[in-house]
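Posting for a labmate who doesn't have an account.
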Amino acid sequence: MEFNFADVHETVARSIPEREAIVFRDRRYTHAQLADRTRRLARYLHGRGLRLHSERGQLAGHESGQDHVALYLYNGNEYLEGMLGTWKARLGAINVNYRYVEEELLYLLDNAKARAVIYHAEFAPRLAAIRDRLPNLEVLLQVADDSGNALLPGAIDYEGALASVSGEPLDLKPCPDDLYIVYTGGTTGMPKGVLWRSADIFVAAMGGRKPDGTELSSYEELAQQVQGGGFLRALIGPPFMHGAAQWSSFIMMTMGGTLVVPDDVKRLDADDFLSLVGREKITTITIVGDAFARPLLDQLAQKEYDLSSLFIIGSGGAPLSARNKAAFLEKIPNAMIFDGIGSSETGAQASNMSSKDTGATSGDFKPGPGACVISADMKRALVPGDGEVGWFAQKGRVPLGYLGDPEKTARTFPVIDGTRYSVPGDRARYRDDGTIEVLGRDSVTINSGGEKIFAEEVELALKQHPAVYDTVVAGRESERWGQEVVAIVQLREGSKASEAELLEEAGKHIARYKLPKAFVFRDRIERSPSGKADYRWAKAQATGQSA
């Protein structure tokens, strides 16, 4: 069965029309209301001339035949409406990092050839500064906020646009080939637009699998599934501009659950976040690794919260250390921690489940459907017991390519023995029991004395020290070693630790040659809003240059 997101959402809305779909501040929209609002957005965009121009069969993997709508928004109902409404008009939604400065924003909107943008009023001045350099940008929908910024010339108020059109569905037939587009974060290079068939990403990461891992077989089966999910309520921590938040949200939607968005959309307010768990009877929370775990755990140490409804802590997008997993399980002993791994180019690949009974580990993952390891020369698939360090890869439902980049598409999605793989750049190896040890991104690997050292492996080792609040590792040139490992460390407030103490703790978990040769202490580690490490910033700290 091949699904498309427009029909998936309409199926959910028909099956559970009166159930709450999204809760955000004082807004509580049912699935029926969300369907109406997204149909109105689709009709408005279609009425402004945005179209699908070429069906998938006429295009190469790096090409898009659909007009693109950029979502330049904080979290809220408008973000999910923007995605769903765009898809219902057979257009492509583009995620925009709201922290981009003008030149970065210009690059992304130009690279995506965005014809429309839905943006919070706060971002109007930044958009105005580059608008004359974006000839493709024609439609501006401005979402009101507390910034006080007036509508840009030619822009339309978002709510006014929805009110101006009918909520009847468009006379269009969405297709499983219609695109899901997600831009990579750009923390190690320029952002790239990953093109997926909606049918493939739906199964790979956005709700197309049942709890037992098998694929949904029909819209009727989807309807039955959502009817049984009335008890599910998910609190989404990371920004919707991040793939992990989108994936978690749509998985919850296809389970029939309710999405709850924290009131503060600009930062993680740990007290508000944890208070919402009790107030909204949250059953699952979505976080991004240690960047979210640490402040939540610190807050739990200061105040009691009603967490009795919570039974799943889901993390993805960045490493979650075993130490922080154990701390969560100590505070919430009935919870399960689902630590997922994947990328924009693979979808969800593998998972690590921790509970009070099993204990907590990090870095080792049980592969999901299609997840595998291929050899370093990309010529053969590896098997458990090989012991070789290769590439973490995915086969089966994988992306079409990178928007506008045929060369990188060919490199990242090679064909080996007749099978097409996605190989985005993480190093990994099989363990004898079939689990996969993920070592980290090759682009931030440090080659020291002829040995490859994976930044994430060193980071996890340093985080075992109780005084370390956060850390990121980078390499710098060394006359003796070629490159040497430098750890940028943020200590916990009020804590002290010497370099020797940090080295002693890390040395219990990794080989001596992997240990940092130098430390740089900072008051704060720079990360993206989604919690991912900013390795360009880390490199600048390690080398003493400006970021």
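Reply:
Got it, the structure tokens are right above this. The radius of gyration is 23 Å.
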